[in-house]
Amino acid sequence: MKMQRKSWIRLLAYFYPTVFILIFFTACSEQPRLIKHGKLVLNVNDLMQTKVTSLHSEAKPFLADFSSSETLQIGTLTLSEFKLTNWVENILSGEKSGKQWIITGLAQGENFKVEKRVTITAHDGFEDLLSFQVTYSNQGGDLQVRAWSNHNYEILNQQDTPPFWAFQGSSTSERKDWVLPLAPGFYQRNYMGMNDSDYGGGIPVTDIWRKDAGIAIGHLAPVPKLVSLPTEIPLNNENVKIKVTKEFEHPTIFKAGESIKTIETFVMVHSGDYYNALSVYSELMQSKGIKMAASEGEAFESIWCSWGYERTFTAQEVLGTLPKVKELGIKWAVLDDGFQIAEGDWNANPKKYPRGDIEIRELVDGMHAMGLKAKIWWTPLAADPTSKLLAEQPDMRLFQSDWSPQFITWWDAYYLSPVNPTVIDHTQKVLDLFLNKWDFDGLKMDGQHMNAVLPDHNPASELDYPEQSVEGLPNFFQMIYDESRKIKPHAVIENCPCGTCMSFYNMVSMNQAVASDPNSLWQIRHRGKTYKALIPQTAYYADHVEQVKTDGKFNTNFATALGVGAVLGTKFTWPKDNPNTKQGQYVLTPEKELIWKKWFALYDKMMLSKEGYLGNLYDIGYDLPETHVIKKGDYLYFSFYNENWSGPVEFRGLATGTTYELYDYANDQPLGMVDINQSSLDLAFSDYLLVQAKPIE
To answer: Where would you tag: which of 83, 432, 590, 653 has the fewest CB atoms within 10 A of its CB?
Structure first.
């Protein structure tokens, strides 16, 4: 209880830096006031309730009426109506220019008197978006606070089929789709903390869209925060409810004279699907100081991974496969899980390598001798209970509130605290082992546990408050990135938080994103679209082509990766499987080799993964067939996906006055001509169709 109060009083120090000029001051009025930014209109009434409207040409109403969008729960009472008393409009100048409104109101009852001050900011260059920060000041007696909520909206159903599509940015052991249609009975909490023993974190944005328009909400804090973005369509209801909310784990004392400030949140309206909202969100976060890693050319090169041989692989199996890897034109070889003594003890396992670490260095030298770059698998922040590391340094573990260590179920290991000085020192030594002594060229960081951590209560971590571990996790990965690039200036840093919606804050410190154990081709495609909205300069790796089981339709797997601009990868075995694995599942047979040669050659020839992804041309939910577009010079590359399609296909994004020659580049077939006036063509295909649109001079 004490720590919780301290944590939230500390929030008062979080201010948005700005320079402003007072434009006008006025007392309240009975007439609703209006704030407009781009195509977003916000009306505010005399009770500080709001109504969001979109001015996009086809947009229908989002809300039926004014709603209590920003609320505070004290005990069993939710403060939802505050009598408006002041309204101030400012112009912001300097680096972060725009407009700002400070709106004040008062809620008063027999046992409470709380002032509410909402600061709404319209950032220049980020039209259609308004950010909110709410301060509640207790002008009465002591209260118990249970929760605050911003952007509490009920979005109207406009009778589309399906009624809504959504982007949901949380992570759980269910490994759900990030993009999905909604129906009555749907509920997802979207908590940004830990949801299961290994799963948590994500992208703090919820986007709901219909055919006519969409609305996104989220938060703009510079570090991860333990808030939720619940989405719900109750049974026997047709509208969808959303909000950003902080639920206190325990009732928190809100003392007389004190204030509670929410984190900065936002609402945005848009047309099309969620791509534009995520793109604007990322750009705004970067304008506020979050710096993404630079693009790395070597991260776009194709990958072979030893995981096909699984944990009992031998050096002879790996080295024996490399000639075939080289023959296929693949540039990277990855040494996967199985070389180490234990999680935490990262030296060579003497049972597999009797001569010790020198044998792994020789393996890397063999990869380099073949002209391949070498990457090593690693699961940071995990240590086995029986590891030498924890026997010698048990204080590295992250402690829960009851002082028990947090367990990682998947690895049968303990979480290490990302902000513990001893953990950081250990991690730096591991990086020196991997990249300097063993001479690897990059890292494959792996494990869903990397996406988020619990608050750390271990005194050995020397924290001011437990949530510092949550907020400091991105700094841990930034340290890994910086240290790795000091040793190897072109090191490829892959972060694979298996099955999770990757934390936006961890994207900062990698130069290769990955589909992270997708369970469907749909997941590869919509995850690709998501990453390209948020970090368009960063390589996106589609994971091993064998990852998604499609009854031997490997052409379809390759076409999914190539069509969305993803890096190709594989984990084939050759000439045979490891005897301890299921036989035949990954062997590169002569029949499969023909397929692999075709697609890796196409990948190297086209390198679409480096080119611009045009994510706002098609709605991934409502437009059929599902379509993705990449622009390379004056050429456009369309990828269409549908189990069985026969009918008109629309080609968008064509230049005015230009005729395009269409070519099925996967099957060497001409398809016809289109231009901006005649942009549709009747086509038939199964599973996929990849089309090059070549402008004719």
So the answer is: 590
**Block residue for tokens 């000085």:** 421
d(CA 625, CA 20): 49
Specify the CATH number for 297-380+421-612; select among 3.40.50.2300, 3.40.640.10, 3.30.43.10, 3.20.20.70.
Answer: 3.20.20.70
- What residue spans in the chain does CATH classification 2.60.40.1180 cover? 626-696
State which amino acid sits at residue 201.
G
How many residues make up the chain in this entry?
697
The type of residue at 194 is: M
> pLDDT, tens digit, for every residue of 60-73?
999 999 999 999 99
SS3 591: helix
pLDDT surpasses 80 at 12: no
Residue 198 in tokens: 């290994």
Helical residues (DSSP H) of 188-288, grouped into ranges: 275-287
List residues bridging with 74 in a β-sheet: 77, 145
Q: Distance (Å, rounded) from C-alpha 517 to C-alpha 581?
A: 19
Contacts by residues 156-161 (CB-CB < 8 Å, ≥ 24 positions apart): 156/60, 156/61, 156/62, 156/63, 156/64, 156/239, 157/238, 157/239, 157/240, 158/60, 158/210, 158/211, 158/212, 160/210, 160/211, 160/212, 160/622
Q: State CA 18 to chain mean position distance.
A: 29
556: which DSSP letter?
H
Section 677-683 average pLDDT: 98
Pick the CATH number of 626-696 from 3.40.1160.10, 3.40.50.261, 3.40.50.970, 2.60.40.1180: 2.60.40.1180
Cβ neighbours of residue 606 closer than 8 Å, sequence gap 6 or more = 562, 632, 637, 665
Distance CA 603, CA 614 (A): 19
Eight-class DSSP state of 435: I
Lookup: tokens for 430: 């591991």
Q: Give the DSSP per-residue string, 503-548.
A: -GGGGGG-SEEE--S-SSHHHHHHHHHHHHHH-TTSEEE---TTSS
- Homologous superfamily, domain 2-287: alpha-galactosidase from lactobacil brevis (2.70.98.60)
Q: What is the pLDDT of residue 1?
A: 30
Predicted pLDDT at 30 = 60
> Residue 115: how many CB atoms within 10 A of its CB?
19
3-state secondary structure of 611: coil
- Find the radius of gyration of the CA atoms of the chain: 27
In 3-state terms, what secondary structure has residue 608? helix
Tokens of 319: 């080295």
- Is residue 164 scored above 80 in pLDDT? yes
| Exposed / middle / buried, residue 15 (Cβ in 10 Å: 0-12, 13-18, 19+) | exposed
Gap between the Cα atoms of 693 and 689, Å rounded: 13
Range 606-627 average pLDDT? 99
Terminus-to-terminus CA distance in the chain, angstroms? 72
Written as one string, the DSSP assignment of 303-369 is EEEGGGG-TT--HHHHHHHHHHHHHTT--EEEE-TTSEEETTEEEEPTTT-TTTHHHHHHHHHHHHH
> So what's the pLDDT on residue 344?
99
Check residue 687 and give its pLDDT: 98
Which DSSP category does 281 fall into? Answer: H
* Residue 605 tokens, joined: 């020839």
- Rounded to whole angstroms, the Cα distance separating 33 from 30 reads 9
How is residue 237 written in tokens?
């209801």
Q: Which two tokens stand for residue 210?
A: 């219909």
DSSP run (H or E) holding 649: strand 635-650
pLDDT per residue as tens digits for the range 408-463: 999 999 999 999 999 999 999 999 999 999 999 999 999 999 999 999 999 999 99
Q: What is the mean pLDDT of residues 634-658?
A: 98
pLDDT (mean) for 376-380: 99
Q: What is the DSSP letter of 288?
A: T
Token code pair at residue 305: 């991974």
